[in-house]
Each structure stands twice: as structure tokens, then as C-alpha cells.
Amino acid sequence: MVAEDDEKQAELVRRYLEREGHAVRVVGDGLAVLDAVRHREPDLLVLDVMMPRADGLDVVRVLRSEDRELPVLMLTARSTEDDLLLGLDLGADDYMTKPYSPRELMARVRTLLRRTRRPAGPEPVAEDPVLRVGDLVVDPERHEVSVGGGPAECTPGEFRILAALAAEPDRVFSRQRLLEELHGFDRYISARTVDVHVMNLRKKIERAPRRPERLLTVFGVGYKLTDPAKAAARRA
């Protein structure tokens, strides 16, 4: 789905997407986006920030409040880092500023679909096993996270970072490595993107987010996920 109120821009994006074999629906305002998604959720939403009736940031806020996990790629004429971080904080998966290259946009779309689309047909049981780090459980197949038996709602970007960390507990991941896990391209966004996701994850999986015990910073290197109980036993 392409949400863009500029008809010429929307037509350009639609043509490029259809050239790559995608079925495309174009909508021109924020409330129409919400109605369309609720009627039939798309595989991916290309969402302009500046739209009538409800802007793109409000659309993302509502979609995530409804626990919808569809990937969202935001387009905007705004270029400040605060705007970018706000979009990611609300749950957008990627962010491009205008003017942009249509070829780059297609590359981003391919990456997001590759990261989030489930293959057709039954998957082997051994594929995407449940990941456990202490009482933190990450289920890639169901896209669910729980801590101490209670659910923790994560955005798609947060989930991919957490799943990567949980797959290799105690391994230190650089910010660059986590950026690659997010998007597959290492030149599009800054390392602060990872920091924002980590900050939000700590609010969801830590008892005291400002004194994390699970998702730890390794200064000068990156982040790692650990089991607090095992860490305490090693210290003892």
C-alpha cells in the first residue's frame, strides 16, 4: 500500500512497485490508510508523513496501538534527526527523506519484505526455534516476546534486534551489525537508530530500564543480551 497525497509522486512509486511484480493500492490521506489496512492488511506500507486528515506519524501510532505488525517505510520532506527518531520510536521500520532515488526505495522495499514476509506453505519445526535467555522468551515463528511469563509487545524493528541478540546470548553485537540485522544495508541510517530501539526494548524487558540487567551496553563495542540469574551466579 502506498499512502501519498501527491498524485504524481504516488503514481511514480506505484509504477516502480508494479514493475517489480507487486500489487499496489494507493490511498491519499491518513484516515483512508487506517480504513484500508483494517479492511485488508497489506504486506508493506509506504507511508508519507505529510498527509491530510491524519499525518503519517499518527497513522503509525494508531497501527501499533492496534498491535498491527505490518512493515512501515516512511517518506518525508523533513530531514532532522529528531523527526527520524520519532518515526522509529513510534514503530516505523525504515525512513527515507525526499527527494529520494526510486531505485533506492525499491531496494528498501525488497529488504523489508525479505525480513518480514513468511514463506508460503508449512515450515519445518526445526526452523526458527524458540529462543530463551533466562525467563526471556523470543518466538520468531509467532513473533512474540515474553518476560517472566508476561507478554512484551515489540515493534518489528525491536523484535529483529532482540531475536538476533537472543540467538547468541552473551555475544557482543556492534551497532553496525545490528543495523545490518534491521535492514540489510549499512549506509542508510545512523547508529543512533539502534540506540533508540535498545532504549525502547529496555522499557519492555527490564525491571529497571535505567539499570539494565539483561540488555547490556558494552562500552565502545555495542550491546549484548544475558541471563541475569547466570550473571549473578558467575559473580558469586
Automatic annotation (TrEMBL):
The keyword Methyltransferase does not apply. Residues 128-227 bind DNA. Keywords: DNA-binding, Phosphoprotein, Transcription, Transcription regulation, Two-component regulatory system. Residues 128-227 form the OmpR/PhoB-type domain. It comes from the Bacteria. Residues 1-113 form the Response regulatory domain. Pfam families: Response_reg (PF00072), Trans_reg_C (PF00486). SMART domains: REC, Trans_reg_C. The keyword NAD does not apply. Signal peptide: none annotated. This is Response regulator transcription factor. It comes from Streptomyces rubiginosohelvolus.
